[in-house]
Amino acid sequence: GEVYFSFSEDEGETFSEPTRLSGVRGSDPRMAVSGNSVYIAWQGSEPGFRLAISRDNGTTFNEPTLLPYGLLGQFAVVGEGVYVVVNCQSFQDLAEDLCLTVSEDGGKIFSEPVPVSRSPSLRSIDPKLSVVGSNVYVVWLEQKLQAEPQPDIYFAVSRDRGASFRDPVNISNIALLPPWADALEPCLAASENNVYIAWIENRPGLFFSRSNDGGITFTNPVNLTESLQAQNTHSCRAAASGNSFYLAWYSLVSGRGNVFFTFSPDNGRTFEDILNLSNDGRTSAPGSLVVAGADVYTAWAVYADTGRGLNDSPFSLRGASDIFLIRGRHSIESTPDDQEFFFAQVADGVSPDHFWKTRFVLMNNSTLPSPVAIQFYAPDGGPLNVMIDNDTRSLFTFTIPGRGLLRLETSGRGELKTGWAALRSSRTMNVLESFRLYDTAQNLLGETVVGASPRVSPSSDKELMLFVNTTGNQNTGIAFVSQGVGEVRFKLMDKAGNAIARKSMNSPFGAQGSWHRAMFITELFGDYPGITEFEGSVIISRAVTAMGLRATDLNFRSIPVYVVDGN
To answer: Cα(283)–Cα(298) distance, rounded to whole angstroms?
Structure first.
């Protein structure tokens, strides 16, 4: 996708011709306005994010600057101060940590990132930011790196304009609720000494907590949408001014999706009746919620029968009449920008002494809903039928709300089946796959969590490499997928980088189409004399994806697979 900008000088009656800002590619734009300056940041295809600044109310913009500080989270502008929350940790088993970088000169020079979440072994994502005076407030979603992540909403405050942050505080306390409970999609607003936090829970509902002492203490969470009896709620947007706090969100009620709104006139102590703003059953989530004087503005997409419509568009205001809007169009159909993920092994069903289930956890990084399709394949490349939620087929489609999470799990019923899977999404995603092993009494014996398998083009000279260890009672299992190639080749490498054994494997199904195999390294190189006490690596060529597992009896651990240059 690309990032476009448009603005209105007549309270939204008309808008300027859109200006393309992103050049080749951009996604997830963010906007802030201060005085005559308009700041727009977005995620590009390269590491870091882009920042474009206009000093003339959006008439012209400078050349976008690349800021190499990780994935863009959220940003705010107060005067000449530009505050940006970023993911400051490289992906390692999908762990993510949040930091803040600050510019005191209107975006010319930024500070080194300062830790905010300080949880490098967890996933800290979907941050929201608010700045009031010297106080910088950040709220985010924090997940454990396991198949039952049970995410919580965390909050941290800086009293010195972002130079340092106090210890994070758990606001939602999901651990006190049933194990299926999740907290998702936080939103944040602050005014004077009041801090307001709302989030989505899958109980379901929109939950709220407030602080009236600058974030020192918070009230117990309350469900603001219990009266709606909604089947689904997501995408909350928050704003505050003086003693008033405003909320907009999407809820599906009686099969119809609409944008709803409420506000509190007394610092979050009481709320007015909920209003249905869109009231047509064909809307997406609200893009933003902003306040200018006594006026409150929000916007949302209305979908025509074709399934096309405006994106959930972030926008901002300057003064009482100027509206700045980022807009774009999208379709639920597949596009060249679709994200594709491979899972080189799927196991589901019963063997004599135990049974397997495969679980997928999908996390939408975008603020926009994402259509998702997951296709299961048999070893010969044909469809593999599995049961998920009492529905048996090979292709499943879903829509994940912006910043939402979806779990899928095969049933484990019937004869043991293996294969592989491919997932396609129209938004950037984080994905986890886990293999769950049970005994016949349905006791969980073990679980292995892996990310999506790396992928290389069948015509590429790139190869796949993974660590091998068969010493003691350990073994290494590999699974791979080949597409349109009849032969896959393997090199066994010692610790000095020497190739000491070679193997090739031909597709039993012919050279056309896809095929899949999974085996232990001792099986593949069974005729190599030292294979049962070996430590080194294996390089796979002419496969498009692979995964590895370290096995000790019935305990498995994931082994990363790396893409390397071919010889």
So the answer is: 13
Handedness of CA 389, 395, 397, 400 (dihedral sign): positive
**CATH architecture designation of domain 462-565:** Sandwich (2.60)
Q: Where are the domains of the chain?
A: 339-451, 462-565
Side chain identity, residue 4? Y
Is the separation of the CB atoms in 518 and 455 below 8 Å? no
The answer for 509, left when phi > 0, alpha when psi is -120 to 50, beta otherwise, is alpha
Q: What is the identity of the amino acid at 200?
A: I
- Pick 281 or 49 by higher pLDDT: 49
- pLDDT on residue 370: 80
Cβ atoms of residues 440 and 354 within 8 Å: yes
Do 112 and 164 touch, CB atoms closer than 8 A?
A: no
Number of Cβ within 10 Å of residue 498's Cβ equals 10
The dotted CATH code for 339-451 is 2.60.290.11
| Segment 148-153 long-range contacts (CB within 8 Å, at least 24 positions apart) | 148/179, 149/123, 149/182, 149/361, 149/405, 150/174, 150/175, 150/179, 150/181, 150/182, 151/182, 151/183, 151/184, 151/405, 152/183, 153/183, 153/186, 153/197, 153/199
Give tens-digit pLDDT for 315-368: 444 333 333 433 333 222 334 446 788 899 999 999 888 899 999 999 888 877
The string of pLDDT tens digits covering residues 255-288 is: 778 889 999 989 999 999 998 888 776 566 676 7
Q: Of the candidates 336, 330, 323, which has an alpha carbon nearest to the alpha carbon of residue 301?
A: 330
